[in-house]
Design a protein that fits this description.
Radius of gyration of chain A: 23 Å
Largest sheet of chain B: 9 strands, antiparallel
Number of strands of chain B: 26
CATH superfamily of the largest domain in chain B: DNA Polymerase III, subunit A, domain 2
Helix content of chain A: 25-40%
Largest sheet of chain A: 5 strands, mixed
Number of strands of chain A: 12
Number of helices of chain B: 6
Strand content of chain B: 35-45%
Radius of gyration of chain B: 25 Å
Structural class of chain A: alpha+beta
CATH architecture of the largest domain in chain B: Roll
Structural class of chain B: alpha+beta
CATH topology of the largest domain in chain B: DNA Polymerase III, Chain A, domain 2
Oligomer: heterodimer
Strand order of the largest sheet of chain B: 14-11-12-13-26-25-24-18-22
CATH topology of the largest domain in chain A: Alpha-Beta Plaits
Strand content of chain A: 15-25%
Number of domains of chain A: 3
Shape of chain B: elongated
Number of helices of chain A: 13
CATH architecture of the largest domain in chain A: 2-Layer Sandwich
């Protein structure tokens, strides 16, 4: 049996909102929402004062204001959040080189090797939390366990400003009581499918035959089967390569015609193309995301045999993806484009790759 | 309308015409073939709005008239009738239904009136020239395998037909490429083609045209403008829109100074490639050529199935080298070479290789290597 790993999941508490309250004394102790208050906006992060009113991230701002009339909307300042995020990275780096950031305010650390000689992963996590508070004036919650899935579960257990440890002895039992929807990687759609199969908790999932899960969910079925037993072999991947780049936009008024949608996609495409050029990356798969007025969301994608080399080529693929969606009875509230199968993925670049004529 | 016609003749024309009709149509009448009987023949007409075909067959027209009927159903019925049977078509003037009788069979088809049938006008076609069926066949067969099916580069989804000069001689050239390989074939420039616009003939048109040539021995009159092209046979006319795009400057990807020359017996080389490729993966189809003085070794390996090598005699005088190719692409090119010997002119393992038939300079193939 391989040696048990020690994984810490660090999650900042109400990150954007906490940064705003830190930098503006008038906001402290008050219900605030980072995000715009416009009719089409959603809350990015809500402070804990606002969460008591049922305000949470991704809630439409209009609904949030209704739930909490005192709510103060604060426009986001991403450059500040990014700067704080860099500070966090520096703190983590003093404890381990194995850092996998999930977003600006969340990361997995593999501290199996006790580089600072603190004696345990729990003490390491406490030291990191203390340093974050000292350096940034913000609070973080930490989860400590023997894999990524349980570490993330643990960081949620004592939020805010808390620390929780899931030991190997506790793992399987904790998972058994967990609703499947709380399992990492199982979203609402999969939850519904699992529920139809009579699987509601981690325990049910553990009892389900592997063959059934694989038949229903393919490769993911294997992962669920393992997870249900508290097993998660995914390594902490430092500097995980970017898998996709994307941009999207929610519109002030729903769009109904293909022309309007095409026009609305232009700035999104331009932004995506800027990212491509800025990062020197290109990709083969373009995915169009459409969210309708009733919040139904669909995606359509096309994979070209070679990287899309210009904004023009991307626009063509975009047109191909968009055309079949019209005429549409429903209005469109959001459109997005994502480019994936980025350079170096797949077999194009490696041995066996077909070279191109310089046409 | 009422007429009788031989099943065999009807089937042949109908098979050409029905394949133009798309399987799924948003406009119902586009699923139909137009049938018009007059002057001792029946004209069958089908269109997908980009491509239009009219073909005439001799028939015994008892009462002239015209209607339209579902193309695929009509074709299926005629196809299933016994050999040597006679077919009677009759449209009831009142109900508009089309009745087909043959032997003891009777079918009634839902017809739609002809006035709703789209007419694709050729417009003015300022250039016109004649090609023999043989020439046209050669231009198509030796290029169409290289047509791209990638929608993003739509201007490669056809054969680029244009006037050029080759060694000071005016020629009519057909070029196709999918970005991995390129085929360029030429015939002496026919009278009337001088100064013509370069046009890109869509893949579907090329394929339908090829079916018509199969049975034609006679000359084909080609007329074109910058947006349409027409191929006129004795009893059939194909009119097509052209791909509205600019074909890339292909000349610059045909290297002229490749100095590593390999000459192989075309047939035994193709067979060896075919055998060795049995082992290469379905996905990459990669095959490696190691060339040296006096011969070459073909090899392939795949993590799943194993490895293969085969040695071949060949004329090669330059320094030894290794180069990889997609075996499918190699076979496609070798299949077009009718003579015994093929000449490969290579530069290095990452640059385009030129393939020609030793005894025939009318066709040039360019193939990009694979990394192996």
């Amino acid at each position: 049996m391989p040696e048990r790993r020690k994984i810490i999941h660090i999650d900042m508490d109400a990150f954007y909102a906490a940064v705003e309250q830190r930098d503006n004394a008038d906001l402290r102790g008050k219900p605030i929402a980072v995000g715009w208050s416009g009719p089409r906006s959603v809350v990015a992060t809500a402070s804990y004062e606002a969460r008591r009113f049922g305000v949470h991230s991704a809630l439409p701002s209009v609904t949030a204001a209704r739930k909490c009339p005192e709510l103060i909307f604060v426009p986001p300042r991403f450059e500040v959040y990014r700067a704080v995020s860099r500070q966090l990275r520096q703190i983590f780096a003093a404890y381990t080189p194995l850092i996998e950031p999930l977003s600006l305010d969340e990361a997995y650390l593999d501290v199996s090797e006790d580089l600072r000689g603190l004696g345990s992963a729990t003490r390491t996590a406490e030291a990191i939390r203390a340093e974050i508070r000292r350096e940034t004036g913000l609070t973080a919650s930490a989860g400590v366990s023997y894999n990524k899935f349980l570490a993330k579960l643990a960081s949620d257990a004592r939020k805010p400003d808390g620390l929780f440890v899931i030991t190997p002895a506790m793992g399987p039992e904790l998972v058994a009581d967990l609703p499947v929807g709380k399992v990492h990687g199982i979203g609402p759609a999969t939850t519904a499918r699992l529920n139809r199969l009579g699987i509601h908790t981690g325990g049910d999932l553990r009892a389900a035959p592997l063959a059934l899960l694989v038949r229903e969910f393919g490769k993911a079925g294997q992962f669920y089967h393992q997870i249900a037993q508290g097993i998660d072999e995914r390594p902490v991947q430092p500097d995980r390569a970017r898998k996709s780049i994307g941009a999207e936009n929610t519109f002030a008024a729903d769009l109904y015609s293909q022309d309007a949608a095409l026009q609305a996609l232009q700035p999104i495409l331009a932004k995506l193309w800027r990212h491509c050029q800025g990062g020197g990356v290109s990709g083969r798969t373009l995915t169009l995301k459409v969210k309708y007025a009733d919040f139904q969301q669909i995606t359509r994608s096309h994979t070209a045999p070679r990287p899309l080399a210009s904004a023009g080529e991307m626009e063509q693929v975009m047109g191909l993806l968009l055309a079949p969606l019209f005429p549409s009875a429903k209005g469109i509230r959001l459109l997005g484009l994502t480019l994936s199968s980025l350079d170096g993925e797949g077999d194009e670049a490696g041995p066996g790759g077909q070279l191109e004529l310089a046409l | 309308m009422k007429l009788t016609i031989e099943r065999a003749a009807l089937l042949k024309s109908l098979s050409h015409v029905q394949s133009v009709v798309e399987r799924r149509n948003t406009i119902p009448i586009l699923s139909n073939v137009k049938i018009e009987g007059r002057d001792g023949q029946v004209a069958l007409n089908a269109t997908d709005m980009d491509l239009d075909i009219v073909e005439a067959v001799g028939a015994d027209v008892i009462r002239p008239g015209a209607t339209t009927a579902p193309a695929h159903t009509f074709y299926e019925i005629v196809r299933k009738l016994p050999d040597g049977s006679q077919v009677e078509l009759e449209q009831d003037a009142e109900s508009g239904l089309l009745t087909l009788r043959s032997g003891r069979s009777k079918f009634t088809l839902q017809a739609l009136p002809v006035d709703g049938y789209p007419v694709m006008s050729g417009g003015e076609l300022p250039y016109s020239f004649t090609l023999s069926a043989e020439e046209l066949k050669g231009l198509i067969d030796r290029t169409r395998f290289a047509i791209s099916s990638e929608e993003t580069r739509y201007y490669l989804n056809g054969i680029y037909l244009h006037a050029a000069t080759s060694g000071g001689v005016p020629v009519l050239r057909a070029v196709a490429t999918d970005g991995h390989r390129l085929a360029r074939v030429e015939v002496p420039l026919p009278e009337g083609a001088a100064g013509m616009t370069g046009v890109i003939v869509p893949r579907k048109t090329v394929n339908e045209l090829r079916k018509l040539i199969e049975e034609a021995a006679q000359d084909v009159v080609v007329s074109l403008s910058d947006s349409k092209i027409r191929f006129a046979f004795d009893n059939a006319v194909l009119t097509s829109k052209l791909i509205d795009g600019t074909f890339p400057d292909y000349e610059r990807v045909i290297p002229e100074n490749n100095d590593k020359i390999l000459e192989v017996d075309c047939k035994s080389f193709a067979q060896a490639v075919d055998r060795v490729s049995a082992i290469s993966t379905e996905k990459s189809r990669a095959i490696k050529l190691a060339v040296y003085g006096g011969g070459l070794t073909l090899s392939a390996s795949s993590p799943e199935s194993g490895s293969a090598t085969e040695e071949l005699e060949a004329a090669y005088g330059a320094e030894a080298m290794e180069i990889g190719f997609n075996s499918r692409y190699l076979m496609d090119i070798l299949a077009q070479i009718e003579g015994d010997a093929a000449r490969f002119a290579m530069a290095d393992a990452a640059s385009p290789t030129v393939v020609r038939e030793v005894a025939d300079s009318s066709a040039v193939y360019v193939l990009m290597p694979m990394r192996v």
